[in-house]
Amino acid sequence: MDTTIYVPKNEKDQIKIRRCCDTLAISGGMVIALSVWDIIKLIIGLFLGEEATIQKIRTAITEASNEVIGTGYEKMIGVVVWIMFWLVILAVSAVILIYHLYIGLNAMKEGHRTETKRKRLYLVLSFISAVLNGGLIILGIFGFFSTKSVNGSIGLAAALIELTTFLNYVFILYTALTIRKLYSCA
């Protein structure tokens, strides 16, 4: 290769910066992919919880509509409340998706070095998410060992996915701070 046109920058710091940037970009994409898991977990928790939350909601709707309106409009009120319930679930799912998209896209931008201004908010949100996922892991482990449920393997699988998510956020924090430190030294 003609070195007059291209001078490779394979110094030790440059290699580490490229490696960290690649890790940050991949971890950002993983945050976006794992946001789908959070939405699925929300819906599964509603339908397949210990005491099915959906059954509780149906009972509450039926009792409330009978007391307020009477039995004549029971089906119509049930349908309206059911539609409102799903709109709230969709709104919460959209907020979860936007939250993870913000973290993931900013990590990917910084990893690909296309961001001109370094943002700190996504790092703060990543830290908060890592702490929350750490708490979910601990709760999942305690729940796995304390219950005698037949669905124990499902709880273990959920705890493993939470562990993956936790490690992903830790990678984002570590690599972003390492990149910033290496750039400041260079």
Structure write-up:
This protein is an all-alpha fold and 186 residues long. The chain has one domain. Helix content is 81%, strand content 0%. It contains 5 helices and no strands. α1 (12-47) packs antiparallel against α5. The chain starts with 11 loop residues before the first helix and ends with a helix. The relative contact order is 0.14. The model has no long low-confidence stretch (mean pLDDT 80).
Quickly give the structural class. Answer: mainly alpha
Please give the largest β-sheet: none
What separation lies between the terminal Cα atoms? 27 Å
Number of separate structural domains:
1
Report the C-alpha radius of gyration, rounded.
Answer: 23 Å
Question: Which range does the strand content fall in?
Answer: under 5%
Mean pLDDT: 80
Uncertain runs with pLDDT below 50, 5 residues or more? Answer: none
- Shape type: elongated
The tally of helices reads 5
Helical proportion, percent range: over 70%
Order of helices and strands: HHHHH
Q: Number of DSSP strands? A: 0
Provide a short characterization of the protein structure.
This protein is an all-alpha fold and 186 residues long.
